[in-house]
What does this fold into?
Amino acid sequence: MFSLARVFAIAHKEVLHLRRDRLTGGMIAGIPIIMTLLFGYAINQDVRHLRAAFLDLANTSGSRALVMDAQATQVVDIVARAKSDADMLAMLRRGDISVGIFIPPDFERRLADKTEPVAQLMVDGGDPIVLSAARGLMDLRIGIDKRDAAQQVHTFALRAFYNPERRSVVFIVPGLTGVILTLTMVLFTAIAIVRERERGNLELLITTPVQSLELMVGKILPYILIGYIQVSIILALGVWLFNVPVKGSLWDFYLAVGFFVTSTLTLGLMISTFAASQFQAFQMTFMTFLPQLLLSGYMFPFEGMPKAAQWIAEVFPLTHFLRIVRGIILRGAELGEMWHHMWPLAVFFAVMMSLAVLRFRKRLD
Amino acid sequence: MAEPAVTTHGLTRRFGNLTAVDHVDLTIPKACVYGFLGPNGSGKSTTIRMFCGLLKPTEGHAEVLGLRVPEDAEKLRTRIGYMTQRFSLYEDLSVVENLDFLDRVYRLPRSSRKSRIDNQLERFHLDDRRDQLAGTMSGGQKQRLALACATLHSPELLFLDEPTSAVDPESRREFWEFLFEMVDQGTTILVSTHFMDEAERCHQLAILDEGRLVAEGAPDTLKDNLGATVVEVAGDDSRAIHRRLMTLDAVYSASQLGTRLHVLVDPGVSAPEELIDAELKRAGLPATIRRVSPNLEDVFVMATLD
Ligand SMILES: Nc1ncnc2c1ncn2[C@@H]1O[C@H](COP(=O)(O)OP(=O)(O)OP(=O)(O)O)[C@@H](O)[C@H]1O
Ligand SMILES: [Mg+2]
It folds into this structure.
């Protein structure tokens, strides 16, 4: 007979463990804060403030304006003025600068001819991100070229929907809720059961009338709450520090989080039925985390991946949650429109839970 | 005495090539303290785990309280109590929290929960430790808590795996008083040990060696039916004495017990003291020799002789 009283007894005991365990307690708040700050600030794909030098051999009002325009984009920061060709190359080689702006003596003639580029960008091509940022700068040439026809330039400017400033942090933070939870939820539950095995508590626990299902449900209950706490921390940081706009309904978002958290927790339960020690549980958690991180569409665009990788990724809760959360937060979608991403989470939960309960034997052999 | 608490037939458990329990046939009567005596690795814990349904027998079978294990183990859960060899309560939970958790897991009546727990605390002298974390308690306190937890749901049958290994003699005596009290109330207790003095107190005893049951019976019966005469020899060079005596055909074994040797001699020899005396004189090894009544150690040595 399935007993809710026993489920709550297990859940209550788990909460007591958490209260006594400073490390895990710290990780509940620490991991989301640190990861959000890291991803938000450091892993910012908008490259700005590249150190740059210029060599202006034309020295006309037009050429000086070009340098000012480049500075105004904030993509580059002019930190030096090169004395010669060789001087600029040396700075580039030493790594003092990432970009060199070279303006040839015949700048004004090239500007009038409109047949060849007016100036040259010398870039440290070893860094693909710098290279692509500099490519963006090449458009600046057009700005000079069509100084009088500013209207037309605007017409061709890229207009990005949902993230007009093209700030990648807006794209990163909502997804980060899913990524962080995929790591912490799986790790916490896997360890919560393996710890009992490692410390010898399991031998006592399985001699009591507790059933596998009661144990599994009781173990994940407290972590659902912790999942909500972590998601709230990440979202709050995203809104306050990075101005992430929340377009859709928070209720929808939190409901989706509930689906996601419960399904991803069962992966932790599954791992706990395999792992013999907490260390093994750690290893297995990372083994399941990395493919999810790489294939879910968080790191690389889903469409660009090979078909086989896409099929694998469809299994992961993170893949579906990312679509839901980006839909709700960034595009203001309603949960009702996202049903086709919700049921895979429910299926994942049902399958993993059943497997974990079946695999967990109340035996030592 | 009606139906026995536990019966086994050819109970065997292997781990790979190692046979931890080897064709054991046992009957454990109800309402007694039944002892498992055996050295390290003799299969005591493995046998108890099979009784609790935690390990599946490789061969043979066991019935506990009339139920087959491990098949019907779930039906047994509320009727048996198990105190593991290694402390298995939650070290980061307090004494009361541990008891409260088990009380809820066993789904004991909620209305009497508080009085039941208080009662256990008092009975096992833990009232002043209510809120101490279990992990910070001394060996003897942990053992009392473990027993309090194992008996919280008043099981009919209690398995205690080396319960007194971390306990001083005084607490051990007290511990045994608890056990006899429970037996008086009708509980059956199976206790494993490698202490001879503890084995001595059991009503019935099974002696295990390398997984085999080598002797079974009441301690006194086992000693009476030893099948050897015991002669105690004390001398300066006990190793030389040992070597010399082992050359005699009538001597089954000579084992060191403290500073003395316990020599087991063929009961057919009418005057074993003289035989030994003459032999040691010939070898020029002075010793005091005296006939003693057998103890359980002798029973164990005799049983494991081959
Ligand atoms: N899970 C296991 N895997 C492999 N071998 C095991 C396992 N459990 C027990 N054994 C082996 O089975 C034998 C019996 O072990 P058991 O724990 O039953 O002995 P014991 O009589 O309880 O000894 P002790 O007095 O040291 O507790 C030992 O040789 C042990 O190494
Ligand atoms: Mg043992």
About this structure: The pocket of adenosine-5'-triphosphate (ligand 1) is lined by residues B 15, 18, 20, 38, 40-46, 85, 162, 194 (CB under 6 Å). The longest strand of chain B covers residues 18-28. The two ends of chain B are 35 Å apart (CA to CA).
